[in-house]
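Sample A.
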Amino acid sequence: MRNYKIPTLTIAGSDSSGGAGVQADLKTFSAIGTYGMSVITAITAQNTMGVFDVEELSRNIIKEQMKAVFEDIMPKAVKIGMVSSPEIILEIVDNLKKYKPETIVVDPVMISKSGYSLLRPEAKENLIKYLIPIAYLITPNVPEAEEITGMKIETVEDMKKAGKKILDLGPKYVLVKGGHLDGDAVDVLMGEDIFEVFTSERLDRKNTHGTGCTLSSAIASNLAKGFSLEESVERAKEYISGALAAMLNLGKGSGPMDHGFAIKNEYIKEAKD
């Protein structure tokens, strides 16, 4: 019998420092045990201290990347991250409707942790009108949920209200992430047949670069492997906690997590002195 891993696809921007974006997604796919593929939407010049420049790729090369992937290795789940322009969003949506992947997880990336805008203001309308409605799951953090709904979110009750507004836009489920609020880390998962609040102890860590990308790709990986949505979210949150607790210490700013913390084999051994 041929060795087989379930294919998963990320459609997102490249992070030159490797902590977020496509690089974080591919590391997560591998760590969770799926076969990762990528469609790159933009190249960013960034590191642990910030994002310094962004260059979007053309609609044509995004279209050709999607065609190359979907017509050869059909992904079981697709995670979508940075899609910075109205034209890129339309191209991605057109192709997703053409190829009809089973599961689409949208992480509505808008602003980097350092405050750099990763979604053009004129692209927000297309995100809301065209991309969010075809999502199986959308995973906004509090600032992103505020941008999408136009409401201020200060409490868990506000998160629930925002979740309902986002569901009205058409996705099947929404996970509103409460990491930007004070107190314990609280995430709210909502849908027609699901309402669950996930509460966990907040880890006091400086190195949190790429947590949103990693969580959404971990959820997509687990969904691809056949876990229920609730199980996928729970397992993804456990994976994030482990990656943060591993205390990887790289860079001069908000560094990356250790995506490979749970990988144990002879090939990761360090050389002896």
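Sample B.
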Amino acid sequence: MDKSFIRITESDSNYDHIENFSTTEILQNVNAEDKKVAYAVEQVIPTIQALVDSVVGKLSNGGRLFYIGAGTSGRLGLVDASECPPTFGVPNDLVIGIIAGGHQAMFQAVENAEDDMEQAWKDLMDYNISSQDIVVGIAASGTTPYVIGGLQTCRQNQITTGSISCNLNSPVSQHADFPIEVVVGPEFITGSTRMKSGTAQKMVLNMISTAVMVKLGRIKGNKMVNMQLTNQKLFDRGVKMIMDELKTIDATKAAELLSSHGSVRKSIEAYQSK
């Protein structure tokens, strides 16, 4: 391990005797710490950009984006991956989240799941991972064996890797072609990385998936024209998008187009091709 590596995520909180705080004091101080997160993310935008550009290149050429992580980090990866199909209309297997311990770990902790350095590669092999793909390891501390082992083996197999952690010079970064280190400082509750660190990771994941999908042409103007119409709210939103874009049709005609073609983009293209 790099001698310059310091577990900032494990450092003592800036607060003490928290149990004596009033409810308002707890909330105000958590909020004060959370305000630091966006600034910390801003500092690493260049490294996020580098990863995004690499992901776009891979996905444009038939590859897939994988997230691997354990605990909160793994759950955040699963959430981001699961939101891509309904939001951007991409296949379910384009962005894939894998969590140590399997899907049951999404809902409850799986003992020692994160300590196996070989399991992530086994999990990736279930998806026939190849050098066409790219794998992003998510680990707040940057020391999770599951993630480190996965990235290490990926690189040995010429698979491009990225990482998201919240400590400088973390071990996980040493195995990433595109390491992102968002240093948010000590947590309000010492070591509780589901707080600022988790927020930072979620923000970075939002930026990655959003930027990638925009670059892949899944957004038109500022609209989710490829979104899956999974409920009435989204269907109604789609109808309005079509009306706003085409100008000359009413809600009934827009609804007919959307029902026939299944997405805002396809509806607009079909109407304009007449």
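B remarks: Residues 23-42 form the longest helix (20 residues). The chain has a mean pLDDT of 94.
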